[in-house]
Each structure stands twice: as structure tokens, then as C-alpha cells.
Specification:
Blueprint lengths: L2 H25 L5 E5 L3 E8 L10 H28 L4 H27 L28 E6 L3 E5 L11 E4 L3 E2 L1 H22 L7
Antiparallel strand pairs: 1-2, 2-3, 3-6, 4-5
Length: about 210
């Protein structure tokens, strides 16, 4: 797989991710939810500080550190993917690396720029944000929030059995996290690497067309 094909894959993922996020941010209020398929596939708008499970990291300063760390990881990833292409690694491996890289870039864009270009989506209101609001965005550079919207509670209103340790009898839901297209891209790349690692790495020394 050559560099041009990899660049196209990465660009397409980033464009799709950002298009979905822009649509949600500009048309949904925080907490707004719409059912896609029955009750287990939904669009549910939330924002987070950029960590998994919506966790925060050390307030404003921690947010900057987290975003800079992710920026450094993306820069490092650029050189890694370039090396994979030059060394003619397995096409499947390069594709997975491109998925992970593109997902990381997609969420990094939110963290770096969304605070500058978007009006704040205020919780507990039905206010919809605007792009490039008068007076500036809701935050400064590196202080943007990541937009999430996909929610798939496939198993609902279930409970852990009485014999289950720690959570016996408590309510159980699968799949609880709300995520975005970039998260899905990263997860797909990582899972595929685990599943096909023997095929990818056994052929890494063989030139690829």
C-alpha cells in the first residue's frame, strides 16, 4: 500500500468524523437523543474532556497536558506510518495503523480547535451551539471538548445474578459508553491488529504489491 492510498484513507475517516461531529454540535443540544433502530441504537449528544469514559484530568492544566500528549503521539504516529509504508509492511497492518492514526487525529481536532470555533452547548438547556459565534468560542486553543454521539445499549434493564461478586443484583447495561466515529476507527484498528497479528507480522518481511 503506497502513501497516496494511506493518505486518502486517513483523510476520508477524518472528514466523515468531523462532518458527523459538526452536524451533531450544530443541531443537537446536550443530552438530546434520537432512536435509530428500536431502542438499542441511538444518537445521544454528549461532550467530554478527551479521556475515555468522559473522565477529566487535572482541570484546565491537565486538559492542556492531555492534548499536547495526544498531539505528540499523532506526530510520532506520522513518522511510524511513513516507516511502515517504506518498509512495505503487510497492507492489512498499514490499514489498521491508518485507522488508529485517523481516529486519533479526529479527536485531537476537537480538543485543539472546537473551543475556538463553537459556541458552548450548555447542559440542562435546549440551546444549540453556533459556529464562529460573536465574541468567540467557549474555550481557548487546546481546551476544546470531544463530541460523542453513538450509543448502543444492546442489553438494557438487566441485573447481575445474585452470585456475581461485588455487583450482585445491581442493574447492568451493555454497551454503555457513548462514542464517536473516530473512537470506532481506533477500536476497529486495534481489534483487527489483535485478531490478525499472526498474518500481519509473519508477512512483514515479505514485499507487498
Amino acid at each position: 500500500m503506497n502513501g497516496r492510498k494511506v493518505a486518502i484513507i486517513i483523510a476520508l475517516i477524518i472528514i466523515i468524523d468531523q462532518a458527523i461531529k459538526f452536524y451533531i454540535k450544530l443541531n443537537y443540544f446536550i443530552g438530546e437523543e434520537h432512536i435509530l433502530i428500536d431502542s438499542w441504537a441511538r444518537l445521544h449528544f454528549i461532550e467530554n474532556e478527551g479521556m475515555a469514559w468522559g473522565l477529566k484530568f487535572g482541570g484546565g492544566f491537565g486538559k492542556i497536558i492531555l492534548t499536547l500528549f495526544r498531539l505528540a503521539a499523532v506526530i510520532w504516529g506520522t513518522f511510524l506510518i511513513k516507516g511502515f509504508i517504506q518498509k512495505k509492511y503487510h497492507n492489512g497492518f498499514i490499514f489498521c495503523a491508518a485507522l488508529i492514526y485517523a481516529g486519533a487525529v479526529g479527536n485531537l481536532i476537537d480538543s485543539m480547535f472546537y473551543g475556538l470555533i463553537f459556541e458552548e452547548s450548555v447542559p440542562y438547556t435546549t440551546m444549540v451551539a453556533h459556529l464562529f459565534p460573536v465574541g468567540g468560542g467557549y474555550g481557548s486553543f487546546l481546551h476544546g471538548k470531544v463530541v460523542d454521539m453513538f450509543y448502543f445499549p444492546i442489553i438494557q434493564n438487566a441485573h447481575f445474578p445474585s452470585w456475581f461478586p461485588f455487583w450482585a443484583g445491581e442493574e447492568f447495561e451493555f454497551f454503555r459508553p457513548v462514542f464517536n466515529f473516530a473512537d470506532a476507527s481506533i477500536s476497529t484498528g486495534v481489534i483487527a491488529l489483535f485478531i490478525f497479528q499472526k498474518k500481519f507480522f509473519s508477512d512483514t518481511d515479505q514485499p507487498q504489491a
